[in-house]
Automatic annotation (TrEMBL):
Coiled coil: none
Transmembrane helix among keywords: yes
Transmembrane regions: 38-56, 62-79, 86-107, 122-144, 172-192, 212-232
InterPro entries the record matches: Phage_phiKZ_Orf197
Name of the featured protein: DUF3307 domain-containing protein
UniProt keyword terms in alphabetical order: Membrane, Transmembrane, Transmembrane helix
Length: 235
């Protein structure tokens, strides 16, 4: 990756996540464009460009980054509400990175190399990753639905849809471990999950719940292993 692009991204990460206290975020959300912290935040992003490049010759780049950052943050503050705050956070970061790539292209004639998309294995990996998320969750639910215990501990104590997202994360981690030839990490993951689940199963005193959890865990791991080996051995 181009060194100039890396430096601009680094400045953004430092400015948005390390040098922006929660108190500033709350003040910006309450006062919006009248917040002094908004303009201080923009100033920090501008100064960070000079620091990471260690030169005053990049003043045009710094001012461009600062101006675009102000426009994006201002629009976010005007549009954001309590209902869409989570979506706006991710949308804000996506637009920021788009602006970064745009500025990088304008000032340094940067061009992203996407030739890797011509490789069929890339598309296979993308397909495998997507399959291990919601499609696998649905397939597992269909398979083990008839064994769901009447009174599960999760129904009373767990977060909403926590089990589904835990399963998705564990399958993606297995895929990552196997594709990077870290098979030992898969065993560690299985052992860690078993330890965390042991307490719940012990308290439940329910053989059916224990069997249900074991079936779900082994099925999830089995599907993840099969898909991962397919991607790893594809020529």
């Amino acid at each position: 990756m181009d060194i100039f692009l890396i430096k601009i991204i680094l400045a953004h990460l430092i400015g948005d996540f390390f040098l922006q206290p929660n108190a500033w975020v709350k003040e910006k959300e309450s006062k919006k464009l009248k917040s002094g912290k908004l303009y201080l935040h923009i100033g920090i992003h501008t100064v960070l460009i000079f620091i990471v490049f260690w030169s005053f010759d990049v003043w045009k780049l710094a001012l461009s980054i600062g101006a675009l950052h102000f426009i994006i943050d201002a629009l976010k503050l005007l549009i954001q509400s309590k209902k869409n705050a989570r979506i706006m956070f991710f949308a804000d970061q996506v637009v920021h990175f788009i602006s970064i790539f745009f500025v990088w292209h304008i000032f340094y004639s940067g061009v992203l190399d996407i030739s890797f998309l011509d490789n069929p294995k890339v598309w296979l990996i993308i397909s495998c990753l997507l399959f291990l998320t919601m499609p696998t969750s649905i397939i597992m639910r269909v398979i083990i639905n008839k064994w769901i215990p009447a009174n599960r501990v999760e129904d009373q104590k767990s977060l909403q849809d926590a089990g589904k997202y835990i399963g998705v994360l564990e399958r993606l981690l297995i895929f990552l471990f196997i594709c990077t030839n870290h098979f030992e990490a898969v065993g560690f993951l299985l052992a860690a999950k078993s330890i965390f689940r042991f307490g719940d199963l012990k308290e439940a005193h329910d053989i059916k719940l224990t069997e249900y959890v074991l079936i779900g865990t082994l099925l999830s791991f089995g599907i993840a292993l099969a898909v991962s080996m397919l991607a790893l051995n594809y020529k």
